[in-house]
Prior knowledge:
With 530 residues, the chain is mainly alpha-helical. It is built from 26 helices and no strands.
Amino acid sequence: MAFRLSGACSRSLTTSISHRFLPLSSLRFLSSPSLNLPKLEPSNEADTLSQILLTHHNPFHCMESSIQLFHGISLSPFLLDQTLLRLQHSSKIALSFFLYSKSLPPPPSPLLSTGSYNLIIDIIGKVRQFDVVWQLILEMDQSNITPDSSTFMILIRRLIAAGLTRQAIRAYDDMGCFVTADNDSDGFSQNSSFCFCFLLDTLCKYGHVKVAVEIFNKRKSEFLVDSKMYTILISGWCKIGRIDKAERFLKEMVERGMEPNVVTYNVMLNGICRRASLHPDERFDRTIRNAEKLFDEMRQRGIEPDVTSFSIVLHVYSRAHKPELTLDKLKYMKEKGICPTVATYTSVMKCLCSCGRLEEAEKLLGEMVSDGISPSAATYNCFFKEYRGRKDVNGALNLYRKMKDDKLCELSLHTYNILLGMFMMLNRIDIVKEIWDDLKGSTAGPDLDSYTLLINGLCEKQQWREACQLFVEMIEKGILPQKVTFETLYKGLIQSNMLRTWRRVKKKLDEESITFGSEFQDYHLKPYRR
C-alpha cells in the first residue's frame, strides 16, 4: 500500500494540544538553556535527499547506492543535520546515513559536530538501542568531538522514557568522566544544579516521582537547593494525582525559607484542575472553589496570577463543556489587560467546537488572527475533531486542503493521525491514501502512531496484504511496533487461515530485525522489537 506534503509551511508553530491539553508553556522549567540539538529549518536539498533515502533505501545494500540518485551531492554540516532531522522517525536509515557521512573523505571543515552526534544519539535512543548510543559516545570521546552535557541529558531522557531509571542515574554519574565545565560547550558540568534539575524533571515527567524524591533526598546536600527543585518535585506529585504530597512539599519549601513563585502556584493549580472530575456540577463547583482558594493564597503572598494561571481555570470551563463561562473568562482576561496566548484561544475553541458551536469558533479564530496571534496546528485540530464526530467528510477535507494549499500553518503529526483515523473509520481508503502520501512527503513523516493506526484499521477491514506491507515497512525504517500491533496482525492472519503469510512475514522480520546492511557490522544493534 504505497500511500507525499511537499511545500511545508515556513512557519513552524510547535504548540501541540492533545486530549491531555496543558496551556502551560511556563511550567517547563528547563526551557533555557535548551539541549544542544539542531533545529529543523527549511532546506530544499534536505527535503529531496531525505525523500530519496526513504523511497529508495535497500535494507541489505549500503547507503551509497541510494545517495547516488542525488546527483552533485556535497554534504555540509547543515545538510547533514537537516537530513537527519527529517529521518528522525526512521532510525535505521538515519544511522546508516550518519555512518555513510563518517566514511567520506574529511572535508576542509569538519562535517561532524557535537550537535550532529547528539542528534543521532537522540534518534537511536528513541528506539532503545542504548548499546549503540554508548558506542557513539565513546567514539566522540576518542576523537576530537567532545561529548557535552546535552549528550548525556539526551541519553538520560531516553533511558527514563524506556523505564530504565537506574541506568539513567548511572549515566548521570558517568557524565563526570566525559564532561567538565572546561570542555562543555553548554557551560555545565555534572555538578551543576541545571543537570540535576534536568534529571529530577525528566523522572517526574515520566511518572517516576518516588525515584526523583529518593535521589533528591540522597544528593541535595551536594547542591544549593532552590525553589526550582522543589517546584519540579511538586509538579511530579501533581502529575500522578498526589496533591497531598505536593502540598507537603510546598509547606516544606516555605519552612526552609524559599518563597514559592508564580510557576510554583501554577503547578499546584494545574494539579488541582488537571485530572479533577467535573461531572456532575457539584464536582465542577468544588474544583473551581479550590482554584479560587489558591488564587487568594497567591495574592496574599503578593503574587499576581498570570496568563497561565487564568488559562488553567479557563480550561476547566472548557473541559466541563461550559461555553458561556469559557467566553466570559476570556473576556475577563482581556479586560484585566492579560493577553491570551494561542493555547488560551485554542482551549476556548475546543470548548465551542465540542459543543457544536462551529460558527462561533470560526468567528473567534478570525478574532485571534486579528489580534496578531497565529493559530497552531492544535487550534485547527479542534475543528477536525468536531468534523470527525459529525462524520463530516467534506468539512474535514476542505479544511485540510485549505491548510495545505494556503499554508495556514504546518500540519502536525497529530493532525495527520486524526484525519487518518477518521477516514479509515469511514472506509474512505482513497482519502486515506492521499493523506498518507502527504504525510510521507512532509518533513514530519509517519511515526509509530501513524503506522499503528493504519495497520490496525487495515486489520479490521481484513486487508492483510496491505497491513503486512506496512508492518514490514515500519520495521525496515527502524520504528518499533507495539506489542498489541504484532498480536493483532498475528491473530488476524491465523484466524483467516493465512499461516503461510504469517511465516513469511515472521521470517522477513527476523532477518530485518537482526541485520540491516554491512555498515552496521561494528555496532551492537539489538533486534528491533519491543
